[in-house]
Amino acid sequence: MKTFTREAVRDQGSSVDNPWCIIDSVVYDLSELLDTHPGGEAVLRQIAGQDATSAFYSLHRQEVLASYSELVIGSIEGEKPQIITPQPGDLSPVPYAEPLWLRGEPFRSPYYNDSHRRLQKAARVFTDRYLVPEAKECEATGKLLSQELIDRMEKVGLLRMRLGPGKHLHARNLFDGAVKGEEFNYFHVVILAQEMARPMARGFQDANMAGMTIGLTVLLNFGPESEWKTRICDEVFSGQTKLCLAITEAFAGSDVTSIRTTAEKTPDGKHYIVNGTKKWITNGTWSDYFVTAVRTGEGISVILIERGEGVDTKSIKTSYSSTAGTALITFDNVKVPVENLLGKENDGIRMIFSNFNHERWAMCCSVLSQCRVVVEECLKWSNQRIVFGKRLIDQPVIRQKLAKMIALVESNQSWLESITHQMCNMPYTEQVRHLAGSIGLLKMSCTRAAHEIADESVQIWGGRGLTQTGMGRHIEMFNRTYKFDAILGGAEEVVADLGVRQAIKNFPKAML
């Protein structure tokens, strides 16, 4: 690469028609941007022949430079770039940008071993290379998740791993041997959930097979041990067949017991006839199977309904991207074989509430990951942004906001890991009995933290935090979509009440 002195750049690059500038010791020829720069040619001429590093980073993110690498004509003699350019898989050196266990010496954790570190590295590389580019496109356009990406995830075992430990992982190739299926535990799931949330594209996050993640667990845990169950699971794990969980109705959100969708047996007892609607169903617009809560006589049951005659889905526009496939589903005299019943008839509430534990816990993992990204963005911006002659970080009020945000993330991450440790050492049936309340309280705590962090981050970022593109796009996205985690999987108030009711249920009578 050709080298220049700063004097040469000033002398040769100050031309009105051929402006040059320096960004982080690299010399750029801006003449091709004179007619296309969004800010107009006047902005470019203002920095012609000068070091524009501070001006550039006050307006743009680092990845913008990668899009204009063809404008590079040289570097400054005797100087090296100082700005860190993250590579796929890199950990962030920003304080609190990574969980404590990933920060290296001298930090320790009793929960994670080498298999967790290998999986984290592999998942970070995969996310940076494949998820981030597609997430950005799908979130903006509403385009569906590509089958190519789904196939990539299936190849490395990502679809199977997201459902947690179990026989479905045994003897499987998981990220080229990063972890053995037999040693896979819930901390591995924490890693995957938190890494896959890093693209900060909330609609895409749900588009990325979230329906399978919360729906197929019902079939795995409660479906009959049969060739039929094995076939359906294999079809869904292959990524070629899509599945979602259909519980919520316009008549019944968090109040599951009030659902009105019915399933009545035919006179010969061989089929159910299903009628009703489901609303706000993630991935519903393009799913092939629907794990559906229905009313069967005196109780509620769960059945697997295949898309076919009488099943209709319509897209619902929500605060995040339509790429998530949020749907209104109508069942009109749908004929379903009785063999598609999952578990026992009228035992659906127990199954649904058991399944909620995994869903709510996974949501805690991802929302905390997003909160951590927001904290990192705010720390970087506060060190960079100059206002009233000072960096933002030099203002005590900003440091107070950052302190609150950091404390909320770190405390909830610790609680998440404590509960996850219990899950690793407790059978599934025991988790349902002993952890439902704790997980509900954790979800409420995490989404309340997200509320505070979203609010403070926008105050730190100002107008950029309200803009969908540019420097503050992650802040805008988080502020616009964090409420999904406060509502989906059970509203904050409902899961908080569950936690307290579970505590009172086990309250020792001797203390009265």
Automatic annotation (TrEMBL):
<keyword id="KW-0560">Oxidoreductase</keyword>
<dbReference type="GO" id="GO:0033539">
    <property type="term" value="P:fatty acid beta-oxidation using acyl-CoA dehydrogenase"/>
</dbReference>
<protein>
    <submittedName>
        <fullName>Acyl-CoA dehydrogenase</fullName>
    </submittedName>
</protein>
<dbReference type="Pfam" id="PF02771">
    <property type="entry name" value="Acyl-CoA_dh_N"/>
</dbReference>
<dbReference type="InterPro" id="IPR013786">
    <property type="entry name" value="AcylCoA_DH/ox_N"/>
</dbReference>
<dbReference type="GO" id="GO:0005737">
    <property type="term" value="C:cytoplasm"/>
</dbReference>
<dbReference type="InterPro" id="IPR036250">
    <property type="entry name" value="AcylCo_DH-like_C"/>
</dbReference>
<dbReference type="InterPro" id="IPR006091">
    <property type="entry name" value="Acyl-CoA_Oxase/DH_mid-dom"/>
</dbReference>
<keyword id="KW-0274">FAD</keyword>
<dbReference type="InterPro" id="IPR050741">
    <property type="entry name" value="Acyl-CoA_dehydrogenase"/>
</dbReference>
<dbReference type="InterPro" id="IPR009100">
    <property type="entry name" value="AcylCoA_DH/oxidase_NM_dom_sf"/>
</dbReference>
<dbReference type="InterPro" id="IPR006089">
    <property type="entry name" value="Acyl-CoA_DH_CS"/>
</dbReference>
<dbReference type="Pfam" id="PF02770">
    <property type="entry name" value="Acyl-CoA_dh_M"/>
</dbReference>
<feature type="domain" description="Cytochrome b5 heme-binding">
    <location>
        <begin position="1"/>
        <end position="77"/>
    </location>
</feature>
<keyword id="KW-0285">Flavoprotein</keyword>
<dbReference type="InterPro" id="IPR009075">
    <property type="entry name" value="AcylCo_DH/oxidase_C"/>
</dbReference>
<dbReference type="Pfam" id="PF00441">
    <property type="entry name" value="Acyl-CoA_dh_1"/>
</dbReference>
<dbReference type="InterPro" id="IPR046373">
    <property type="entry name" value="Acyl-CoA_Oxase/DH_mid-dom_sf"/>
</dbReference>
<dbReference type="GO" id="GO:0003995">
    <property type="term" value="F:acyl-CoA dehydrogenase activity"/>
</dbReference>
<comment type="similarity">
    <text>Belongs to the acyl-CoA dehydrogenase family.</text>
</comment>
<dbReference type="GO" id="GO:0050660">
    <property type="term" value="F:flavin adenine dinucleotide binding"/>
</dbReference>
<dbReference type="InterPro" id="IPR036400">
    <property type="entry name" value="Cyt_B5-like_heme/steroid_sf"/>
</dbReference>
<dbReference type="Pfam" id="PF00173">
    <property type="entry name" value="Cyt-b5"/>
</dbReference>
<dbReference type="InterPro" id="IPR037069">
    <property type="entry name" value="AcylCoA_DH/ox_N_sf"/>
</dbReference>
<dbReference type="InterPro" id="IPR001199">
    <property type="entry name" value="Cyt_B5-like_heme/steroid-bd"/>
</dbReference>
